[in-house]
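Researcher: I'm preparing a figure for a lab meeting and need a structural model of a single chain. I don't have an experimental structure, so a prediction will have to do for now. The sequence is pasted below. Please return the structure as tokens so I can convert it later.
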Amino acid sequence: QVQLVESGGGLVQAGGSLRLSCTASGSILSIDEMGWYRQAPGNHRELVARTPSDGTTYYTNSVKGRFTISRDDAKNTVYLQLNSPNPEDTAVYYCYADIFTNPYNHRAYWGQGTQVTVSS
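Model: Understood. Here is the structure written out token by token.
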């Protein structure tokens, strides 16, 4: 059984900062890509940032230069640093991880979601 637990969401003022964390636990052999999606009310879930196991990073255009994704493979944890957020970044943020539980099978696992609210 694999579980992803998120933390770090909450209320932040525009221009402030916030760090989200997501830790995977359970029967994990290895983790490939990790990342974050978000979903605002009335919107589709959108990819915010992702980082494959080689350490490269990808960001959606609206967060480039403001958000930073990183990972600590020793802790099976992915982070999302939100700098200078604005009210348009208000959403529920979901982490995911592409996890191998044996050498032949892998799939994406998801966190429960954490609310980020940016006040103006």
